[in-house]
Amino acid sequence: MKEDQKINRKRSWNWGHGLTLGMLGFIAFLAFMVYKAMSLPTNLVREDYYLAEMDFGDQMAAESRGNLYANPVLSFENGMLTARYPSMDLPDILVADLSLYCPADLTKDREWLATKSTLSGDGSVSLQVPLAQPPSGLAYIEIEWTTPEGKAYHRVVHHFPVRH
């Protein structure tokens, strides 16, 4: 009878075994998550992130000057990205820096120097830049120009259609 009890005792499962296996499983899960997090690409918004942070006050002043003007309406047709300001609100924009920032893919970021196109009959001002193939998904279009008071800035969120 004692031999049967010894065999059963060796095969029995107690809470210590379960606790040890649970902890080992949790450690394995954490190690897997750390590996996956380290293997994902981490694209910074810009390479000179810390230097740009030093000019944050100037950037906020430019954004407040840009907010004095109406936001542009963005469109993409025939390979041209157009930022149309609704009225002759911006007679002082002759040249503007346009940049396209795609948070999902660093390779699709673009920058242009846009010149003011002709005024349309309704009094709107358009800035046009060539864009052969738009990115799919979320993108930020940043427009920066110089006014008599200093730099002005608009950041517009735009959702391009997703291509499959």
Describe this structure in words.
By secondary structure, the chain is an alpha+beta fold. It folds into two domains: 2-39; 49-160, Immunoglobulin-like, CATH 2.60.40.10. 32% of the residues lie in helices and 32% in strands. The chain has four helices and seven strands; from the N terminus they run ααααβββββββ. It has helices at 2-11, 15-39, 49-54, 56-66; strands at residues 73-77, 80-85, 95-101, 110-115, 125-130, 137-147, 150-160. The strands form two sheets. Strands 4-3-6-7 form a four-stranded antiparallel sheet. The protein has a three-stranded antiparallel sheet with strand order 1-2-5, with no helix packed on it. The longest helix has 25 residues, at 15-39. The protein is elongated and about 105 Å long.
Short description:
The chain is of the alpha+beta class. It has helices at residues 2-11, 15-39, 49-54, 56-66, and strands spanning 73-77, 80-85, 95-101, 110-115, 125-130, 137-147, 150-160. A hairpin with an 8-residue loop joins strand 3 and strand 4 (110-115).
